[in-house]
């Protein structure tokens, strides 16, 4: 029996040449796209000259370096991982993943312990204290939006509207009726929850992109109302002289009836900052605890069922109308609490503080942290806001680095930084559900184990 003839020797080098040519083509296309994106952002820049006129400055050398880096990176990517999908998770051993999943509770406890000790460690650093207050405020906003987006699966791009309603409600009630912060706080949350109900009714039959557009429009409507209703909200001038909270009736002033004099301490403006930090930290922890409790209730399980499949939820007898309305109202209530704190902390509010950028930032915190993950929201808020401050000296490249980091997380960690989910109901023992066996609703595919 005759043996088959060996393939020609030129076949394999020809295939390699085709692969190299295809990789070079992909790299050239990527470099062309990078050139189109950065030619006006980096290559050409306008600055105000001495006479007030715009002066054009060029940075074509930096533009060439960036385009060349994109070309080389895409070429190496095409030559090295052409067929295989790059996954950082595949590089981590399974034993390490299991150990990390078991350490989630300890990591959360360490995170809370460090948060409690921040004023003690950085008492003399006012900048760090203010940054910590900002981080905890956005963490609380992330917890509230996580109910709507992470648990119920309803994409909300106008969450800043509830933030604004809470802030203006507190400011107006406190100034008009002379009520204290502790009385105005629940009232602001109730009014924000009512605004959530108003948003929920028109979007009961909407989903996906249509829902996102309507919620975005709702946020802009609230901002325009605050901007144009000058008799009530002050319009673009905002509201100033908003009352500050007190410690059980003790104001943080240098008077004889102040906080420092009552406890025999030397007066320091830092006392009020530390009090505000612990106040927002208590509100954030309360929001986290309530959210975790709600997940174990029937309404929480209905939210998660609605997130996975709305049609199947209706088939199982879940009232999707009340489920959506409760998700919007509960998320809006916590946003109203955060808005009331923002108003009392700043002492001044205006419509410029409640733009779409705030909604986008909170939504990015929820998505990057891991939809449905409370710990992920706290980590993402710390990383994003703290990262902004770390790159403050590199103002020209801060947004570029931030955008590149977000793209990398979306590609390599599509389910967020904390992608494991612990079921709220279990049969015999609690088991963490890894992301590898959870269906990705955005892609519509299931990752094989």
| Gross morphology | globular
The radius of gyration is 26 Å
How would you characterize the largest beta sheet? 2 strands, antiparallel
Strand line-up in the sheet with most strands:
1-2
What pattern of helices and strands is seen along the backbone? HEEHHHHHHHHHHHHHHHH
Strand content: under 5%
Q: What's the structural domain tally?
A: 2
CATH class of the largest domain: Mainly Alpha
Low-pLDDT sequence parts: 439-449
The CATH topology assignment of the largest domain is ABC transporter involved in vitamin B12 uptake, BtuC
* Helix/strand class: mainly alpha
How many helix segments?
Answer: 17
Beginning-to-end CA distance, first to last residue: 45 Å
Give the key terms:
mainly alpha, ABC transporter involved in vitamin B12 uptake, BtuC, two-stranded antiparallel sheet
Overview of the structural elements:
The protein is mainly α and about 450 residues long. The protein contains 17 helices and two strands. It folds into two domains: about 10-85, no CATH class; about 105-410, ABC transporter involved in vitamin B12 uptake, BtuC, CATH 1.10.3470. The chain has helices at about 10-45, 60-80, 95-100, 105-120, 125-150, 160-175, 180-200, 210-230, 230-235, 260, 270-295, 300-310, 310-315, 320-345, 355-370, 375-390, 395-410; strands at about 45-50, 55-60. A hairpin with a 5-residue loop joins strand 1 (about 45-50) and strand 2. It is globular.
């Amino acid at each position: 029996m005759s043996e088959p003839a060996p393939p020609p020797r030129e076949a394999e080098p020809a295939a390699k040449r085709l692969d190299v040519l295809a990789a070079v083509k992909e790299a050239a296309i990527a470099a062309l796209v990078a050139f189109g994106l950065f030619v006006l952002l980096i290559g050409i820049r306008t600055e105000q000259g001495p006479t007030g006129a715009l002066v054009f400055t060029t940075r074509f050398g930096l533009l060439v370096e960036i385009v060349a880096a994109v070309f080389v990176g895409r070429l190496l990517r095409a030559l090295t991982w052409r067929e295989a999908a790059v996954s950082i998770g595949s590089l981590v051993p399974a034993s390490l993943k299991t150990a990390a999943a078991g350490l989630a509770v300890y990591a959360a406890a360490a995170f809370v312990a460090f948060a409690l000790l921040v004023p003690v460690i950085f008492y003399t650093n006012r900048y760090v204290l203010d940054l910590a207050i900002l981080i905890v405020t956005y963490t609380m906003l992330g917890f509230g939006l996580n109910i709507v987006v992470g648990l119920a699966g309803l994409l909300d791009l106008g969450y800043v509207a509830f933030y604004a309603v809470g802030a203006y409600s507190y400011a107006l009630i406190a100034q008009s009726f002379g009520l204290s912060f502790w009385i105005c706080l629940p009232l602001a949350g109730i009014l924000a929850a009512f605004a959530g109900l108003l948003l929920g009714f028109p979007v009961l039959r909407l989903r996906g992109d249509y829902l996102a557009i309507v919620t975005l429009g709702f946020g802009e409507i609230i901002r325009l109302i605050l901007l144009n209703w000058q008799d009530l909200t002050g319009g673009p001038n905002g509201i100033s002289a908003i009352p500050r909270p007190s410690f059980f009736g003790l104001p943080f002033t240098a008077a004889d009836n102040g906080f420092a004099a009552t406890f025999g301490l030397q007066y320091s403006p830092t006392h009020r900052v530390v009090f505000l930090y612990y106040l927002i930290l208590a509100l954030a922890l309360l929001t986290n605890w309530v959210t975790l409790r709600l997940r174990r209730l029937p309404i929480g399980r209905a939210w998660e069922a609605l997130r996975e499949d709305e049609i199947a939820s209706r088939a199982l007898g879940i009232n999707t109308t009340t489920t959506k309305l409760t998700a919007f109202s509960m998320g809006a209530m916590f946003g109203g609490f955060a808005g009331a704190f923002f108003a009392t902390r700043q002492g001044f509010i205006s419509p410029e503080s409640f733009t779409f950028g705030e909604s986008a930032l909170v939504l990015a915190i929820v998505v990057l942290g891991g939809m449905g993950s409370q710990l992920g929201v706290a980590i993402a808020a710390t990383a994003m806001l703290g990262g902004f401050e770390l790159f403050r000296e590199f103002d020209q490249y801060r947004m570029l680095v931030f955008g590149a980091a977000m793209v990398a997380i979306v590609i390599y960690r599509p389910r967020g930084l904390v992608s494991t989910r612990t079921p709220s109901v279990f049969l015999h023992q609690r088991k963490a559900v890894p992301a590898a066996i959870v269906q990705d609703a955005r892609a519509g595919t299931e990752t094989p184990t």
